[in-house]
């Protein structure tokens, strides 16, 4: 049986290795050309698009924090400074991939775990969320030491107020983003804030900065602000006002001190106060700067203005006399009274005794429009324009809205309202020879001023006001040894629904030294409940205590040397009279000295 051999297919083409190799080479070449072309397109033609895509994933523009400008008092003492702090933040997309680390992180942050989990879950699609802001760098370092994935820190700044409550109402405070919210922090926010910078960085997938690419814009720190406030006088006013409120069981109080020649605010305090370093919580009412926002009826502090108006009108002279007997007078269906029957008073006596009837008689002799314009010229009825946020304009109705009683009550401080700052501004004008100057909180700032009364009239009224603090006046407790004090008390009943309550606002406004005034000071105490409610006994002593130390601190020379020398001599005489006579000499050393204790008697005298 013969073996069968396979039959070769003669129609099959022979295998062409070379051709196939060429085909593969051509295919690979075409692929290479395509790849090179695509790379060229990506790198040259469409590079910007892909660069944006890459940067969106790895390149970030992050802010460069900048510090807020420092606020200092007129002597360079810091009142508000920015200190570096750290804020802890997280990338929720990364952090939520490690839920087992959340309890550890919550404990490190000192927050409840459910609160942290909720916060992260609500922002699960975000790449940034704050966990804890503005904490001590050491605290931040301790939190980061746990190495929880997706948790980082960044540098920020926090405002610190070294003077605390004493300066709170002047400075105000900033919010968590370091923006001014109240006070001068708000008024000068743009000046103080500065401009944060920015830089581009490359971050890895863990959020860590791998490389700084470039500086987009440099950070511009905030500008410093030098205030007219004197920290020493501010603290004196705060201390004495607080003591007066405690002593008189009063609801609130305010005090403001102006530099008479320049209009600079040297001190401004209010109570109750608050801690600007920890603003959250507490009573929002305590954050109100009553000196510039709260309106009071000025009471008898208005009488020097009424006298100045009458003298300027030429209706009276300082020696003109008025009969105020029997101590009251009817006006329509109302009766106006003095504290008691002062009889015949000259114009000076009206101020000395604070006679309501005398002030009404002066006002009745003046034209309505003239009296209104004169009072308005002293700043009543318009805001002081000091630049402080929220300052009130007060209430001063024009003559067209007056009734038959308005001008009479205005003459002794009812029927109109003003802030303590407005009253201080008006008194500073009297002390500045009749020139009204806009108050300022910035040291060296020259503000607008205008002549509102003739210098000789202002000086004459100032001399009349000196009698208020001298024997026979209503504020002898405001007198300062060695200085002439020109001032005026104001005890006004507080308005209530349907009339006036048996609650009082006590005000003392004064100028010192009266011969050449340096300080204009207003002290207001609301609703004293511990005995007296007369301004001379409640607000006057605060004025004296503050001004005594302020005059010494500012090296203001005394203008009443005679009284000071007389008081020194009298005090020396009292001290001499209180010294006991020396014991007579004992001739015999062995004799018993009756001035020695028995144990030392016969010991040969004093060693």
TrEMBL record:
<dbReference type="InterPro" id="IPR050515">
    <property type="entry name" value="Beta-lactam/transpept"/>
</dbReference>
<dbReference type="GO" id="GO:0009002">
    <property type="term" value="F:serine-type D-Ala-D-Ala carboxypeptidase activity"/>
</dbReference>
<keyword id="KW-0645">Protease</keyword>
<dbReference type="GO" id="GO:0008360">
    <property type="term" value="P:regulation of cell shape"/>
</dbReference>
<dbReference type="InterPro" id="IPR037532">
    <property type="entry name" value="FtsI_transpept"/>
</dbReference>
<comment type="pathway">
    <text>Cell wall biogenesis; peptidoglycan biosynthesis.</text>
</comment>
<protein>
    <recommendedName>
        <fullName>Peptidoglycan D,D-transpeptidase FtsI</fullName>
        <ecNumber>3.4.16.4</ecNumber>
    </recommendedName>
</protein>
<dbReference type="GO" id="GO:0008955">
    <property type="term" value="F:peptidoglycan glycosyltransferase activity"/>
</dbReference>
<dbReference type="GO" id="GO:0043093">
    <property type="term" value="P:FtsZ-dependent cytokinesis"/>
</dbReference>
<keyword id="KW-0472">Membrane</keyword>
<keyword id="KW-0133">Cell shape</keyword>
<keyword id="KW-0132">Cell division</keyword>
<keyword id="KW-0328">Glycosyltransferase</keyword>
<dbReference type="GO" id="GO:0009252">
    <property type="term" value="P:peptidoglycan biosynthetic process"/>
</dbReference>
<feature type="active site" description="Acyl-ester intermediate">
    <location>
        <position position="300"/>
    </location>
</feature>
<dbReference type="InterPro" id="IPR012338">
    <property type="entry name" value="Beta-lactam/transpept-like"/>
</dbReference>
<dbReference type="GO" id="GO:0008658">
    <property type="term" value="F:penicillin binding"/>
</dbReference>
<keyword id="KW-0131">Cell cycle</keyword>
<keyword id="KW-0378">Hydrolase</keyword>
<dbReference type="InterPro" id="IPR001460">
    <property type="entry name" value="PCN-bd_Tpept"/>
</dbReference>
<comment type="function">
    <text>Catalyzes cross-linking of the peptidoglycan cell wall at the division septum.</text>
</comment>
<dbReference type="Pfam" id="PF03717">
    <property type="entry name" value="PBP_dimer"/>
</dbReference>
<dbReference type="GO" id="GO:0005886">
    <property type="term" value="C:plasma membrane"/>
</dbReference>
<keyword id="KW-0121">Carboxypeptidase</keyword>
<comment type="similarity">
    <text>Belongs to the transpeptidase family. FtsI subfamily.</text>
</comment>
<keyword id="KW-0573">Peptidoglycan synthesis</keyword>
<keyword id="KW-1003">Cell membrane</keyword>
<keyword id="KW-0812">Transmembrane</keyword>
<dbReference type="GO" id="GO:0071555">
    <property type="term" value="P:cell wall organization"/>
</dbReference>
<feature type="region of interest" description="Disordered">
    <location>
        <begin position="572"/>
        <end position="607"/>
    </location>
</feature>
<dbReference type="Pfam" id="PF00905">
    <property type="entry name" value="Transpeptidase"/>
</dbReference>
<dbReference type="InterPro" id="IPR005311">
    <property type="entry name" value="PBP_dimer"/>
</dbReference>
<dbReference type="GO" id="GO:0000917">
    <property type="term" value="P:division septum assembly"/>
</dbReference>
<keyword id="KW-1133">Transmembrane helix</keyword>
<feature type="domain" description="Penicillin-binding protein dimerisation">
    <location>
        <begin position="64"/>
        <end position="213"/>
    </location>
</feature>
<keyword id="KW-0997">Cell inner membrane</keyword>
<keyword id="KW-0961">Cell wall biogenesis/degradation</keyword>
<dbReference type="GO" id="GO:0006508">
    <property type="term" value="P:proteolysis"/>
</dbReference>
<dbReference type="InterPro" id="IPR036138">
    <property type="entry name" value="PBP_dimer_sf"/>
</dbReference>
<feature type="domain" description="Penicillin-binding protein transpeptidase">
    <location>
        <begin position="253"/>
        <end position="548"/>
    </location>
</feature>
<keyword id="KW-0717">Septation</keyword>
<keyword id="KW-0808">Transferase</keyword>
């Amino acid at each position: 049986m013969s073996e069968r051999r396979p039959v070769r297919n003669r129609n099959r083409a022979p295998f062409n290795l070379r051709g196939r190799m060429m085909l593969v080479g051509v295919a690979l070449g075409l692929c290479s050309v395509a790849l090179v072309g695509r790379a060229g397109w990506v790198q040259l033609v469409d590079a910007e698009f892909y660069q944006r895509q890459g940067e969106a994933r790895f390149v970030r523009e992050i802010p460069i924090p900048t510090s807020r400008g420092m606020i200092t008092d007129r002597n360079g003492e810091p009142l508000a400074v920015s200190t570096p702090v750290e804020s802890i933040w997280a990338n929720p997309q990364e952090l939520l991939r490690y839920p087992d680390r959340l309890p550890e992180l919550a404990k490190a942050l000192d927050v409840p775990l459910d609160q942290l989990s909720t916060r992260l879950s609500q922002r699960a699609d975000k790449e940034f969320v704050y966990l804890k802001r503005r904490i001590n760098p050491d605290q931040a370092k301790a939190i980061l030491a746990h190495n929880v994935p997706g948790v980082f820190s960044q540098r920020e700044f926090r405002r610190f107020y070294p003077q605390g409550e004493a300066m709170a109402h002047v400075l105000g405070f900033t919010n968590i983003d370091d923006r001014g919210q109240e006070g001068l922090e708000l008024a000068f926010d743009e000046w103080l804030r500065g401009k944060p910078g920015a830089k581009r960085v490359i971050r890895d997938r863990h959020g860590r900065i791998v490389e700084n690419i470039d500086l987009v814009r440099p950070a511009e720190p905030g500008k410093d602000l030098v205030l007219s406030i004197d920290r020493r006088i501010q603290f004196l006013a705060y201390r004495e006002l607080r003591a007066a409120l405690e002593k008189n069981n009063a609801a609130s109080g305010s005090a403001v001190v102006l530099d008479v020649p320049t209009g600079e605010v040297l001190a401004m305090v209010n109570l109750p106060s608050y801690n600007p370093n920890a603003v959250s919580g507490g009573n929002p009412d305590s954050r109100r700067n009553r000196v510039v926002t709260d309106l009071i009826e000025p009471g008898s502090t208005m009488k020097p203005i009424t006298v100045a108006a009458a003298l300027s009108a030429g209706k009276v002279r300082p020696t003109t006399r008025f009969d105020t007997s029997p101590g009251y007078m009817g006006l329509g269906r109302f009766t106006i009274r003095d504290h008691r029957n002062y009889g015949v008073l000259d114009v000076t006596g009206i101020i000395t005794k604070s006679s309501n009837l005398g002030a009404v008689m002066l006002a009745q002799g003046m034209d309505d429009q003239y009296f209104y314009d004169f009072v308005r010229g002293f700043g009543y009825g318009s805001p002081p324009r000091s630049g402080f946020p929220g300052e009130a304009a007060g209430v001063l109705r024009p003559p067209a809205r007056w009734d038959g009683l308005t001008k009479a009550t205005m003459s002794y401080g009812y029927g109109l309202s003003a802030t303590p700052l407005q009253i201080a501004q008006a008194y500073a004008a009297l002390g500045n020879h009749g020139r009204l100057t806009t108050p300022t909180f910035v040291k060296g700032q020259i503000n607008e001023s205008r002549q509102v009364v003739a210098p000789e009239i202002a000086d004459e009224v100032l001399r009349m006001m000196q009698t208020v603090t001298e024997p026979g006046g209503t504020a002898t407790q405001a007198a300062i040894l060695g200085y002439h004090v020109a001032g005026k008390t104001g005890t006004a009943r507080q308005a209530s629904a349907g009339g006036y309550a048996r609650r009082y606002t006590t005000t003392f406004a004064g100028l010192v030294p009266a011969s050449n005034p340096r300080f204009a000071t207003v002290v207001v105490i609301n609703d004293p409940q511990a005995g007296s409610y007369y301004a001379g006994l409640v607000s006057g002593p605060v004025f004296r205590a503050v001004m005594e130390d302020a005059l010494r601190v500012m090296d203001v020379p005394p203008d009443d040397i005679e009284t000071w020398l007389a008081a020194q001599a009298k005090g020396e005489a009292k001290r001499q009279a209180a010294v006991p006579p020396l014991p007579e000499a004992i001739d015999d050393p062995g004799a018993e000295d009756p001035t020695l204790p028995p144990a030392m008697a016969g010991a040969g005298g004093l060693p």
